[in-house]
């Protein structure tokens, strides 16, 4: 989903993931047309960057995350709001659990 050929080096893989992950989620909210909402998203994204990095380093199998993002994209493109929100809610809980476990 995010990249077909991830770099072998962990730090390069994290950088690649962050770049693509940022663009993916920004694309999801960009259509809202609210510069204020996008600024809030940008701030929250930056505040959680270190936790995603820790999560990435501790989770050797990222296939579940890729699958969830694929489902999120699929539901958004189909305009299936309920399923998209369900996947997104689970997505945020994973990050919150990582934050509170550290």
- Strand % is under 5%
Give a short account of the largest sheet: none
Shape: globular
If helices are DSSP runs of H or I spanning 4 or more residues, what is the number of helices? 5
**Uncertain residue ranges:** none
Task: Give a count of the beta strands, DSSP E runs of length 2 or more.
Answer: 0
Q: Alpha-carbon distance between the termini?
A: 28 Å
Helix percentage range: over 70%
Helix/strand/pairing class, anyone?
mainly alpha
Instruction: Give the SSE order as H and E letters.
Output: HHHHH
The mean pLDDT is 81
Radius of gyration: 14 Å
Structure, explained:
There is one protein chain. Helix content is about 80%, strand content about 0%. The chain is mainly α and about 100 residues long. The mean pLDDT is about 80.
């Amino acid at each position: 989903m995010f990249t077909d050929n991830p770099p072998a080096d962990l730090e390069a893989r994290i950088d690649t993931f962050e770049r693509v992950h940022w663009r993916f989620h920004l694309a999801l909210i960009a259509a809202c047309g609210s510069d204020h909402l996008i600024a809030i998203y940008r701030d929250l994204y930056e505040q959680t960057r270190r936790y995603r990095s820790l999560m990435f380093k501790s989770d050797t199998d990222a296939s579940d995350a890729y699958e969830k993002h694929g489902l999120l994209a699929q539901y958004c493109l189909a305009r299936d709001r309920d399923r998209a929100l369900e996947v997104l809610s689970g997505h945020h809980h994973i990050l919150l659990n990582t934050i509170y476990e550290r």
